[in-house]
Amino acid sequence: MKGSSCPSRYRVVVRGGLGLSFSSAFKELEIAQHEGETSLTGRFADQAQLYGLLDRLRDLGISIVSVNLVK
Fold it and tell me: How many independent structural domains does the chain possess?
C-alpha cells in the first residue's frame, strides 16, 4: 500500500469453501466460491486492517492461498 492513505482493494483466496457461519463472519467482503477455493474481496483502509483479516482467517484454521491487490 506504500503508505497511501486511500483504501486499497484486495482479494484473499483461501482453500476450500466457507460455510454460512464463516460467510457471516466476513459480511463486509464480497465472497465468491470457485473450484476448491473461496475468494474474499474488499477495501482495506490500511495494512493493519488487511492483516486483521489474515489473522482472523488463521485463527479460524482457514488456509490462505494468495493475497492480491485488485486494480
Answer: 1
